[in-house]
Amino acid sequence: MTLTTWRRRDLGIGILALIWLGWTWAVSQNAAAIQWFDQAIALPLHHSPQWFQTAMVSYTKLGNPQTITILTLIIGLLLILGRQSKAAVFFWLNTWGLAGYGNYLVKQLIQRPRPTAWRLIQIGGYSYPSGHSTTTTVLVASLLIIAYDRLKSRNLKQWLFGAGVVIILLMMISRIVVGVHYPSDTVGGLMLGICLTYLSFRLSTGHRQGNFKLNHH
After folding, report:
1. CA-CA distances (angstroms) from residue 39 to 35, 115, 176, 183?
2. Chain centroid to CA 52: how far?
3. What is the spatial distance between Cα 86 and Cα 88, in angstroms, rounded to a whole number?
4. 186: which of 172, 174, 214, 216 fits an S-S bond (Cβ 3.0–4.6 Å)?
5. Is it the case that residue 26 has pLDDT exceeding 90?
6. d(CA 131, CA 99)
7. Cβ neighbours for 121, distance < 8 A, ≥ 6 positions apart
């Protein structure tokens, strides 16, 4: 990776982080633009076909903490069995540490109440940012990074990236459809997830492949 490429990527994520800070501030102030954005997206989704709403109720459960914990544990163990313990630790730290605690901290700082006008499922806690959106973004992005470290095929990389984008977008949409998040919550979760994963990606470059070696004295 050339220094110019790193600088370009760092600048891009730096700009995204600033956008996320501005977005978060606007949400905390209940800005008119955020209210308009939420209504413009949520209303059509709340009036979507019944079959789609039913599918989203099922899909959103894939992002529940219990499901994510089990899925993340299994993927990490498979990586260890494949002699990729460094990748497993990278994956676990991202999904359990950065995504979980990072999202929790922001929720406690903003303390945005969840929407109440429309509900297909019941849940407590604060609304911003969407934990499901943050965690799904970090999980998928971390897996893409691990895959990209090893894959040579450009077409396969593009296909995996496209599949990852669909998985994340569907999770964001599902949280709006079931009525437990505003659209701005999911966008905030997406941006937070990208920034956190990039930070981990940057710090772990050169240390994600292979097994940890134990020194024998």
Report:
1. 6, 11, 11, 8
2. 22
3. 5
4. 172
5. yes
6. 8
7. 57, 60, 178, 179, 180
